[in-house]
Amino acid sequence: MKKKNDLNSWRKEKKDIFAILGDNKKILMPVILIVAVVITVAIALSANHRATELAQASSDSDAAATYEIQDVTMEENAYPEVNALVDTYYTAMAEGDSETIKSIYKGLDETEALKAVAAAEYIEDFENIVVYTKPGPLTGSYIAYVYNEVKLYDYDKAIPGLETMYICSDDDGNLYINGDIADANEIEYIKNVNVQADVIDLNNKVASSYNEMVNSDETLAELLTKMRSGLQVSVGEALASSEASASETSEDASETDSNAESSEAASTEESETETAIVRTIKATDVINIRKSDSETADILGKTTKGQEFKQLEALANGWSKIEYDGGVAYVKTEFFEVISEETVEADTDNEETESLADADETSTADKDTSAKTGKMTVNDSVRLRKSQSTDSEILEMIYSGSAVNVVEQYSNGWAKVEYNGSTGYVKSEFLE
Question: Kindly report the CA angle at 283 between 281 and 287, in degrees rounded to 5?
Fold first, then answer.
């Protein structure tokens, strides 16, 4: 009897359920449809995932197909062979050993190699090196975030810094620093890893320590400014010396040619021109354009994805100096790619042209004979211009605290100065 009652009860509940479904079908049908779609998508994704796994399993493990972003926590000093490579690199940097640097840093251009040698004059040692690593896109590769503290000769405290390195293995299994990444997928992989939370935290921590140290110590800020200026001069002189040496070698070889007159003409023409490498870079993301090479510097604007700029210099600290809005600005190099590179020739001004230019510029304003001349310091970052006009060509930037030699000052508020081997004009109000 009990079982019969239970059966009748179940039938009644079943009937009630169908009644409810019938009364609410307008609401329930979309819900059922959504559930069906979700199940279908889940099955499709599962099938696609299995197909991807099978495709990856059948591909070469060393091929550039392993680009799935691995969101794993950074490891600290986890690979002795990576630490050994990094130690060799920083030892060579401190000693100015360009041959060792070139042997382990593939893709390092001549300017950066010369800058490394020149920097050794200021750097006493690299201390407290810590290597944080994440898996790279290729088998046997790593993305290394290297914390270091650089000890300068003329400063008591060590200065914190962080350098990103892409470390790869060659055919013999030897590690090297890869500075010449051609594969767009590898670049995209590294960019994605660079914006992972723990990497950003590390960058912010080191940048904060560095900026706090520089902002609280005028002596250090001035030293770094002078160091930067000194490096520019040293690298420029080294490049000029290298070009002169190449010119002499070419001249000696041409003298053995039977046509001596033709050789002499070619040598004269070469001496009147100088070459420069002009690079055009393109933004791969929307990033800030800043007044100087610092995360805390004033923001002048933002890039648009695909926007192109003329790269004036690729700095060793990961920033690029670019032409921007009639002047110069700085952006993070990692968010740009080089799209063109060409060697151009520019005629150097001869003495007669310079003399006439000086005469014309002097005639535009009377000399202020009561104003001071000689060694002075700029009290803000200013542009060294070719003539007495804010529309004139910019020769280079002079950073706050830099020393200049004031040749003349004029009643129109301009001053003729010498800086880093260049002669140009700045506003007198920035001199003290």
Answer: 135
Beta strands in 36-77 (DSSP E): 75-76
Last residue of a domain, one of 287, 318, 347: 347
- At residue 365, the pLDDT reads 56
- 196: domain range? 75-218
Sequence-distant (≥ 6) Cβ neighbours of residue 108 within 8 angstroms: 101, 102, 179
Does the structure show a pLDDT above 90 at 127? yes
* In the chain, % of residues over pLDDT 90: 25
CA distance 425 to 357: 13
Q: Are residues 364 and 340 in the same domain?
A: no
What's the total number of domains in the chain?
Answer: 3
Q: Is there a contact between 138 and 62 (Cβ–Cβ < 8 Å)?
A: yes
Same domain, 335 and 358: no
Beta strands in 34-169 (DSSP E): 75-76, 105-106, 123-135, 142-152, 158-169
CA dist 288 and 299 (Å) reads 6
Domain boundary among 347, 367, 385: 347
Q: What is the pLDDT of residue 303?
A: 92
Say if residue 138 is in the same domain as residue 170. yes
CA dist 371 and 359 (Å) reads 20
Distance between CA atoms of 399 and 156, rounded to whole angstroms?
Answer: 23
Tokens encoding 397: 């930037």
* Angstrom distance (rounded) from CA 94 to CA 91: 5
CB 343 within 8 A of CB 396: no
> Which is nearest to 414 in space by CA: 427, 398, 405?
427
Both 337 and 403 in a single domain? no
CB atoms within 10 A of CB 401: 19
148 in the same domain as 88:
yes
Residue at token pair 């042209």: 353
Mean pLDDT over 240-269 rounds to 54
Q: Are residues 139 and 104 in the same domain?
A: yes
- Are residues 306 and 328 located together in one domain of the fold? yes
Whether 327 maps to a domain, the answer reads yes
Q: What is the pTM of this model?
A: 0.47
